[in-house]
Amino acid sequence: MRLLISVGTRPEIIKMAPVYEALTRIKGVDILLVHTGQHYDWEMSDIFFRELGMDEPDINLGIGSGSQVVQTSSVLMEMGKIIENYEPDGVMAVGDTNSVLGTAIASSKLEVPFIHVESGLRSYDFTMPEEINRRVADHLACLNFSPTPRSFSNLAEEGYPPERIVLSGNTIVDAVNKVAGLIQKSNILRELGISEDEPLMTVTVHRKENADYEYRMLGIVKALEELDELTIVWPVHPRTLRRLKGFGLWGKLKSMEHLILTEPLGYIDFLKLLSSSDIIATDSGGVQEESATLKKPCVILRDNTERPEIVEMGFGEVTGVNPSSIVSAVREFLYQEGLRDKLMGLPNPFGDGTASKIIAGVLKRIWNLRTLKHESPHFKGGSPHYVTYKVPDRLVGMTTSRFKELTGYEVVTIYDASGRSVAFDAGTPFTRGMIVRARGDPYNFDRLRRLMGR
Fold it and tell me: Catalytic residue positions?
């Protein structure tokens, strides 16, 4: 198996590291590791390869910073050349960055199966570049690994074939578990002059929708100024630093005695900081996942999140950037009696740390990744249509694969009797009360009606 793995940013390196390790243990897997260079500073890139035990990239495209169009098109063109030269059986990427989008398009155009890890996340916010990137990458992929039942359901609802979706969990949990034993060896608290007894909050802000708008950054700064009962540590992203200085807010931040501003931290130091924090405030998707994994309350400095499981399970709250909303949420979490024990008792919505093994195991079973290539469908009725029905008694116990065999219709979504979406596979049986949505050739509609007894 010849596999090209693409990474480009800090979170991609972190999340791909355990998958890379699992795949290197499989005999006969030849991996070409390509770094697009979207993140290129030592603090944002190189240190993570070292700390997570990942080999140095075979190729670094060095695309650097630039506009959305420049970054995406640069990756598309350069990755296309590498794919043509290396001739991989498949190409894999994780996440929703410009690097992922460029890689997905290049793979698709060259008819090499693209495999997308962390697929199906949806914020429904098209002002976010990441929302556009992830949607396109998902639907260009020949195989999607979804981290949660919600993300699995999102893909199925959009018409993506369920048999090409694998519910894997999120590899961020694997990454955190991998370095858990090293976290306590970090000296970052002492280096920053922080006592483990004082209430601590970690803040990260980097997203375009926050960093590029003065009024949004001002809202965050005002909230941090008011929360002076906390020691606050903010590892500042290089892009955010430039914006803060441009908006004239950097001096105000530096004058706050309870706020510690640092350069971006390595992964082990950063996880030590998170694990020592009483609360975390962030606009980062990865940090939201790390918060839940470490069982820490999280204030989400955005107007929405593609990781709603955090809110649903009680790990976090979406506040936007209104100062009073941020302060209220922080204090509610901070002074809530018994919160720590409550969060410790909750399961991690992002899995149990076996995602990388699941992903590697699936690819090993498939082995010939070229068989994943999409083929042209045949519809005597022209194109498929959708039907939705409540499972009748006569279909209880029938599997989704048997249903497809008998009717020609493919199950795309299942809801249980309470209305919640159900993750499923070919062997999932229908149960009483289920609501099923299926897609098929209108030419076969009579077969479906006969089976349903209509």
Answer: 206
